[in-house]
Amino acid sequence: AQDQAHLSIDAAKSGAKIDRNLFGQFAENLGRGLYGGIWVGPDSSIPNTRGIRNDVVGALRELKVPDVRWPGGCFADQYHWRNGIGPADKRPATVNSAWGDVVDSNAFGTDEFMDFVHQIGSNAYVSLNLGSGTPQEAAEWVEYMTAAEPTALAKERAANGHPAPYKIAMLGLGNESWDCGGAMSPDYYVSLMKIYSRFVPNMNPAQRDKDQMLRIAVGPGTPTTEWTEAVMKAWQHHTWSWDINGLSLHWYTVPTGWPPSAPSINFGVEDYAKTIKSTLFMDEFLRKQEAVMDKYDPEKKVALVVDEWGEWFAPLPGTNKSFLEQQNSMRDAVLAALNLNIFARHADRVRMANIAQMINVLQAMILTDREKMVLTPTYYIYKMYVPFQDATFVPVAFDAGTYVHGDVTLPRLDAIAARDATGKLWLALTNLDPEKPLQIEADINGMKTAAASGETLTAPAVDSINTFDSPRTVVPKPAAVKTRDGKLTVTLDPKSVTVISITP
Ligand code: AHR
């Protein structure tokens, strides 16, 4: 009986919308995240469109990436946008002192970022420099991007080849201002943030609508609530002159604490269990911050935006430590699914999230090495979860059971369900047990179940990875799902994530 679990899905009930922005990405000017990962330059022998890798664009389009956060991270608070516009040979070389003191050619700037976002069919989430910039610099940057009128900056953008204004979907008002963004006190930040909210307008009247440039304030990065209190208390009394639409939250899974020392390769079940245990804390972290937000904003107008999350392991041997390069394994796929499930359960308040980071950095979707590219297990989770974008949460009742390893106890099963716009029901099931399969029987109430099919992601070991030479060790395969008389049965492989569609 221990190897069976029963689920009950109430398909007629609805929860919150699982906002597609929960599946956002983060691409900082860090290591090989942009340079090499996205940007190879128009003269490269690597196939590209206007300098942007075609293979990476093709892979990302499959994920329907809703938004990309750029240029940082810590880098954002030292970025001066003027260095990154105009003819490439006239751009100044600068030093990326946030990440490794490497020389930055500034070849990938605002126009290249907007081109990238356009090529992958996504939206721009631009983080402003509140640390070392000024409100005037930020206002001019946003004017360069959004002005529709023939202002001097709109003309400059047109002269750089982009007459039509860009859309900024989200605007970050600083990054980790309590630490790398300027080590500010909460009160100092609140005063500064109000100024940027007030004096950095979207210059495109067609996009002035609030939904067109959501302003995201810096929020907490530790489980304490002091920062959230300060921002939300101020927001409760905001006037016509300033507003925010979201509060950012950063939290990484660092199973050994700082500095990250756990390996991303060649680990065993003990590391797996500890890492998964550590990541499940995300739920409690969100609850704590939500309780404070509910106090000042019971109508949930301000979204909680988890715009940096994911695993942070020891740098891969032989790589530049500041480049934050790590491998991505089956464990990381399980971890990604568990976090996406947590976000879905908090979807009434958590309406955006950005995994750190998109390519070659931390928990990446894609790894590249010159002309080579490989898709990671985390990539496949994002691909399998595409149907959950903007779907409506449907409650699932189940007894999760337990998986015990040494002194670590984990739930054995996790599950979420959602209904898409066509009426299809989607079910995501994770078997956390790395050793044993789990038989599932699900009652689907309130819906006729005509047909079901699914895909599952599993691998020989918790540390199985995809490499440039063996890129298909961890890839989805069909799942053996059956439906009969309103019941669905499927056997979940050990350490697997399965996504099933049920057609009415
Ligand atoms: O994602 C790497 C870094 O982690 C970001 O630059 C920073 O915001 C966070 O501390």
Automatic annotation (TrEMBL):
Signal found in the keyword field: yes
Enzyme class, spelled out: hydrolase
Record field: catalytic activity: Hydrolysis of terminal non-reducing alpha-L-arabinofuranoside residues in alpha-L-arabinosides
Residues annotated as domain Alpha-L-arabinofuranosidase C-terminal: 307-496
EC number, UniProt record: 3.2.1.55
A single GO molecular function term of this UniProt record: alpha-L-arabinofuranosidase activity
Tagged with keyword Nuclease: no
A biological-process GO annotation: polysaccharide catabolic process
Pfam families the UniProt entry points to: Alpha-L-AF_C (PF06964), ASD1_dom (PF22848)
Keywords recorded for this protein, A-Z: Carbohydrate metabolism, Glycosidase, Hydrolase, Signal
PANTHER family linked: ALPHA-L-ARABINOFURANOSIDASE C-RELATED (PTHR43576), INTRACELLULAR EXO-ALPHA-L-ARABINOFURANOSIDASE 2 (PTHR43576:SF2)
Assembly information from the UniProt record: Homohexamer; trimer of dimers.
Family, per entry: Belongs to the glycosyl hydrolase 51 family.
UniProt-recorded name of the protein: non-reducing end alpha-L-arabinofuranosidase
Organism: Silvibacterium bohemicum
